[in-house]
Structure formats: structure tokens, C-alpha cells
């Protein structure tokens, strides 16, 4: 019998702002799920889009995670240093005709709602993006929290961008390559990425890579029922006072008890939380947040 690999989870933020409550929920949820299965927990910085990055945000995110007691078991992986790995994964797809150059602009694809099924762009002088050729196929998978999922990939998303025309590597390629490189077995993340999962599974199959198990946590909504964004609810959580935010994230995840109440170290509180954690209690639907203290240091995002 082939031994099962050691469970490995990860948290993969983008440095577009400081750690807010939605990010903390994803970090704590992925950490709890990894520890519940007796596995490792890693952090990957998805710093692939320099125009959207906020100076110093990556360092502040890592400092906040440390203050919340969420220390990765291995050194942080930085996507900005992984270009050679992405190029190595892309080349066989190009060689096999599974990926192709595309010079279509957004306006070229307006008639199809932005879904690429065939190149319609003119202008040979435009820089080319690289897309993954997506046939008419349906991707089915079982999400551990959201249940059975199915997506007709070609109709829903079309040919997937793997490298943007302006140069940066696309998220879909980078995340698939890095999950395999880090031997991730269990992906726990926000439900805003549920729609991306079928195209990632398809790309894993094209590259001959294993498919992890997926669990998508409920979205954190602000008082107006919107996903956290540039609102008061998205202000940074306060690393100087980690217990209240950790307690609120614990409650958001539907867990019983108060492991973060009382005194003692944050590490001791996390150990109590790990022992009490029950994945079956995590809600499936998006909902609002408890009162969460925020940091007084606000950085533009």
C-alpha cells in the first residue's frame, strides 16, 4: 500500500494591503485545518503584480502573522522569485500546442463577455499574452465545505491566461506550479476563489500534477453585505492586540468555546484552539463579522 503523503496546507496572501479580518480568517482557518490533520502549514507571498502592491505590505503581513502566532513551518515562498519555474512549466504546454500566443484585447472580446474561444484581435504589433487552450469540458470536484461543484470550463471562462501581455505571470499558472512545488495536499481558502478551482484542476491535469483537496471558507461580508474591500471593515486587524481578532475569527468559523479568552501566551491559546477545532462546525454561507479591533496604522491600498 502506498503511504499517504503528510498533509500540507498553506496561506497565500497578496501584498496589496495590510492583513485585514478576511485575511486573518483565511490564515487561521487554513492553519487549523492543517494542524487538525496533523500536517504542516506554509506561507506563500503572491507578489506577482507590482503595480497593485503596496510598499511594505508584505513585511507587515508577515509581522502580523507572527504576532498572531501563525508561524509557517518552512521559509516563506516568494512568487516574484519563481519565474524560472513558471517558464519551465509553460514551455511543454507551448511545445504541445496546449498553450498559444494571443493578441486579443479586452475590447476585442467584449462581444463574448471577455471569454476567449478564438483569437479575434488584429494588430500583430501588440504584445502577446499566453493562453491555455481550453476544450469543451466539464470539471467536477468535491469541495470539503461547499460540496459538489461543476463548471463547463470553456463556456464559463474560456482560454485561460497563463502569462499576461504586459509581462507578469498569471495567477492561475503560478498557483498551480507552486502548490505542486510545495507539495500542498489541502487548499483552504476563501470562497471568492471557488470559481477559479476548476481551471486550476484542468491545468494540473495538463501539466501532470497532483490535485489537492479543496475547502473554501465562507466569505466575510461587511455591514452592507459586500465582500471586504476598501471599507472600514477591511482596516488592518491589530497585531498589538491579537486575542480579540483571533477570537472573532474563531467565532466566524463557527467554533465553540473561548480558547482565546483569559491570560497566557498566544501560542497557548492556539494550542487550545487546535484541540477544540471541529471542521464540521464551519458555516458554508457568507456572513458578517463580529466586532474586531483594528490597527490605528492604516496604509493606502
Structure notes:
The structure is a single chain. The protein is 29% helix and 17% strand. Helix 5 crosses helix 6. The chain has 301 residues and is α/β, with parallel strands linked by helices. It has a three-stranded parallel β-sheet with strand order 1-2-3, with helices on one face. The longest helix is centred in the N-terminal third of the chain and has 16 residues, at 21-36. The protein is globular, with a radius of gyration of 20 Å. It starts with 7 loop residues before the first strand and ends in a 13-residue tail after the last strand. It has eight helices and twelve strands. Strand 1 (8-11), helix 1 (21-36) and strand 2 form a beta-alpha-beta unit. The chain has a domain at 1-80 and 218-301: HUPs (Rossmann fold, 3-Layer(aba) Sandwich).
TL;DR?
With 301 residues, this protein is α/β, with parallel strands linked by helices. The chain has helices at residues 21-36, 57-67, 83-95, 153-156, 171-181, 197-207, 242-252, 266-276; strands at residues 8-11, 40-45, 77-78, 99-102, 129-132, 138-143, 147-152, 160-163, 186-190, 213-217, 220-221, 287-288.
Q: What's the end-to-end separation, in Å?
A: 50 Å
| Regions with little confidence, pLDDT below 50 for 5+ residues | 296-301
The SSE order reads EHEHEHEEEEHEHEHEEHHE
**Any idea of the CATH class of the domain at 1-80 and 218-301?**
Alpha Beta
Instruction: Output the CATH homologous superfamily of the domain at 1-80 and 218-301.
Output: HUPs
In DSSP terms (H or I, runs of 4 or more residues), the helix count works out at 8
CATH topology name of the domain at 1-80 and 218-301, in short, is Rossmann fold
Trace the largest sheet across and list its strands. 1-2-3
Amino acid at each position: 500500500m502506498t503511504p499517504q503523503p503528510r498533509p500540507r496546507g498553506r496561506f497565500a496572501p497578496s501584498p496589496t494591503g495590510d492583513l485585514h479580518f478576511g485575511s486573518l480568517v483565511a490564515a487561521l482557518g487554513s492553519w487549523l485545518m492543517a494542524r487538525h490533520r496533523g500536517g504542516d502549514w506554509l506561507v506563500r507571498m503572491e507578489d506577482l503584480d507590482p503595480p497593485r502592491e503596496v510598499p511594505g505590505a508584505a513585511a507587515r503581513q508577515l509581522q502580523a502573522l507572527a504576532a498572531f502566532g501563525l508561524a509557517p513551518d518552512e521559509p516563506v515562498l516568494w512568487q516574484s522569485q519563481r519565474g524560472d519555474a513558471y517558464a519551465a512549466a509553460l514551455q511543454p504546454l507551448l511545445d504541445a500546442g496546449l498553450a498559444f500566443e494571443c493578441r486579443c484585447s479586452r475590447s476585442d472580446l467584449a462581444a463574448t463577455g471577455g471569454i476567449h474561444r478564438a483569437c479575434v484581435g488584429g494588430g500583430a504589433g501588440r504584445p502577446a499574452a499566453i493562453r491555455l487552450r481550453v476544450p469543451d469540458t466539464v470539471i467536477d470536484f468535491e469541495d470539503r465545505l461547499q460540496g459538489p461543484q461543476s463548471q463547463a470550463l470553456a463556456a464559463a471562462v474560456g482560454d485561460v491566461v497563463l502569462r499576461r501581455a504586459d509581462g507578469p505571470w498569471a495567477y492561475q499558472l503560478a498557483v498551480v506550479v507552486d502548490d505542486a512545488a510545495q507539495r500542498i495536499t489541502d487548499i483552504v481558502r476563501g470562497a471568492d476563489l471557488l470559481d477559479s478551482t476548476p481551471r486550476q484542476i484542468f491545468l494540473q491535469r495538463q501539466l501532470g500534477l497532483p490535485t489537492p483537496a479543496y475547502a473554501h471558507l465562507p466569505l466575510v461580508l461587511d455591514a452592507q453585505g459586500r465582500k471586504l474591500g476598501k471599507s472600514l471593515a477591511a482596516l488592518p486587524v491589530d497585531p498589538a492586540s491579537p486575542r480579540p481578532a483571533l477570537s472573532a475569527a474563531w467565532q466566524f468559523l463557527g467554533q465553540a468555546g473561548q480558547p482565546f479568552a483569559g491570560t497566557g501566551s498566544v501560542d497557548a491559546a492556539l494550542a487550545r484552539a487546535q484541540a477544540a477545532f471541529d471542521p464540521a462546525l464551519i458555516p458554508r454561507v457568507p456572513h458578517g463579522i463580529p466586532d474586531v479591533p483594528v490597527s490605528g496604522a492604516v496604509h493606502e491600498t
